[in-house]
Design goal:
500 residues, alpha+beta, Outer membrane efflux proteins (OEP), 4-stranded antiparallel β-sheet, 4 strands, 9% strand
Length: 500
């Protein structure tokens, strides 16, 4: 009997050790829908010449900016603002959204270990006393018909992964964990960029408040001039009302800029994991230099953006799920065994004569399922096709992001140059109109218009500067912020699997 049992078990164990049969398609990374040879917005632009040490991203910083040699790993350091550096560095430590994403990644890693456990036997044990009663004992009114029995049992169950269902499941979980890691990197980069943009928005609010306060002082002087003119009978009360209106309107803008600054400070506090009461940012001037850089070759973007990497890993996970669905067509082979002891006395429980054991394989499979397995395979293939489409759309969106920010970088630089010229002209117009009003050659309405136009141009210049800084931060974000796929955790080593 033993020889027959081992004659069955040994070949099955050999099959389990070989386990060379992995049903379902092996993963091959699909190509993007399209990959242009160069970014449209970089054509005809002068190339940078200064290499960035320690940065694995192709495309160098333009030498025109003094921040060119900054390491793009801490990419926000290109702005040479120690306070900004301090704020962004707190994102990794304190941002609660990022902590949630990190916990999701750890959860996905734990799921791999949970799935891998199915590759190994499950061993369980039980034991305890049992009192067995008979009808004879109860009918005689005594307990002599009862007998105590002691039992101890151990069992083993091992599902042999002949068709690779378990390994495909682990492959799916491993790729999903890598996708989770890429999503974590994407979330980190997004929050870092948001802190940078909010910080510069706060600095522009500082500049706006200074601009409005300077304008208030200038308008107060103008109001005094008009008051003197009215007192001398040269000007009318209408001129006085216009001057007062412009002054009060600008005073209201000072209050509005103060509110905007406060809200941006609150937003930064939340992003770095602090309550607004815990953060106070002193007023300061905005940076005078906006760094320029090129985007490198479009094909390298596939390795530099964490969202693209997440999409690619999600394709791998979906591909593995097809194998899981296909494996359901084949029977499961389970090796089971048990060893038990039964005795009326606990001292003799583990005697060989009181042992009972069993060992043998079991095949189990579905004969008729009404098309459930076929539907599951079709569903898995459709999910894979959807993952491919999502990946390709993510790549296209990434190309668009880079092109948009390159266009912003180029066009906003030109716009700022012209806008600053408009500011200078508007300031000159204010001085000329005020002189002509004092000479009595123009009405005060002309002065009001020139002052309003000058203030509007000053505001526009500040907004263009903010747009340039925002575009520079968003361009680094669009390029992956120094991240690349080598930073993904390695896939779990699983024998017999084709790894990425």
């Amino acid at each position: 009997m033993k020889s027959r049992t081992f004659g069955i078990v040994v070949p099955l164990l050999g099959c389990s050790l070989l386990a060379g049969c992995l049903v379902g398609p092996d993963y091959v990374r699909p190509a993007p829908a399209t990959t242009p040879p160069a970014f449209k917005e970089m054509r005809g632009q002068p190339a940078a010449t200064a290499a960035v040490p320690g940065v694995p991203i192709p495309g160098e910083w333009r030498p025109a900016s003094p921040q060119d040699m900054a390491d793009r790993g801490a990419w926000w350091s290109i702005y040479n603002d120690p306070l900004l550096d301090s704020l962004v560095s707190q994102v990794e430590v304190s941002n609660q959204t990022l902590k949630s994403d990190e916990a999701a990644y750890r959860q996905s890693r734990a799921l791999i270990r949970q799935n891998r456990s199915a590759l190994y036997p499950t061993i369980s044990a039980s034991g305890g006393p049992t009192e067995i009663g008979t009808g004879q004992g109860r009918s005689s009114g005594s307990s002599s018909g009862n007998a105590a029995q002691f039992a101890a049992t151990g069992s083993l169950s091992w599902e042999i992964d002949i068709w690779g269902s378990i390994r495909r499941t682990i492959e799916n979980a491993s790729a999903a964990a890598q996708a989770s890691a890429a999503n974590l990197a994407a979330a980190r980069l997004s929050i870092q960029a948001e802190v940078v943009v909010d910080y510069f928005s706060l600095r522009v609010a500082d500049e706006s408040r200074r601009l409005f306060e300077a304008s208030v002082a200038a308008y107060q002087r103008s109001l005094q001039i008009v008051q003197n003119q009215v007192n001398a009978g040269i000007a009318s009360n209408l001129d006085l009302a216009q001057a007062r209106t412009l002054l009060q309107q600008t005073q209201a803008q000072v209050i509005s800029a103060t509110l905007q600054r406060t809200l941006f400070e609150h937003a930064i506090a939340a992003l770095i994991g602090k309550a607004p009461a815990e953060l106070n940012i002193a007023p300061s001037k905005i940076t005078d230099t906006v760094p320029f850089f090129d985007a490198g070759i479009p094909s390298t973007l596939l390795e530099r953006r964490p969202d693209i990497a997440a999409g690619e890993r999600q394709m791998a996970a979906a591909n593995a799920q097809i194998g899981v669905a296909v494996a359901a067509y084949y029977p499961n082979l389970t090796l089971g065994g048990s060893l038990g002891f039964l005795s009326s006395t606990i001292g003799a429980l583990f005697a060989v004569s009181n042992s009972v054991w069993s060992l043998g394989p079991q095949l189990a499979g579905t004969v008729i399922d009404g098309g459930a397995r076929g539907g599951a395979v079709d569903s898995a293939r459709a999910a894979y096709d959807a993952a491919v489409a999502n990946y390709r759309q993510t790549v296209l969106t990434a190309f668009q992001d880079v092109e948009d920010q390159l266009a912003n970088q180029r066009v906003l630089t030109q716009e700022e140059t012209v806008q600053l010229q408009a500011v200078a002209s508007a300031r000159e117009a204010v001085q000329l109109s005020l002189n002509q009003y004092l000479a009595g050659t123009i009405p005060y309405t002309t002065v009001v218009v020139s002052q309003t136009t000058a203030l509007s141009n000053e505001q526009t210049a500040l907004n263009v500067r903010l747009a340039r800084l925002t575009a520079s931060a968003n361009l680094v974000k669009a390029l992956g912020g120094g991240w690349n796929t080598t930073q993904l955790p390695a896939p779990e080593p699983i024998a017999g699997l084709t790894q990425r």
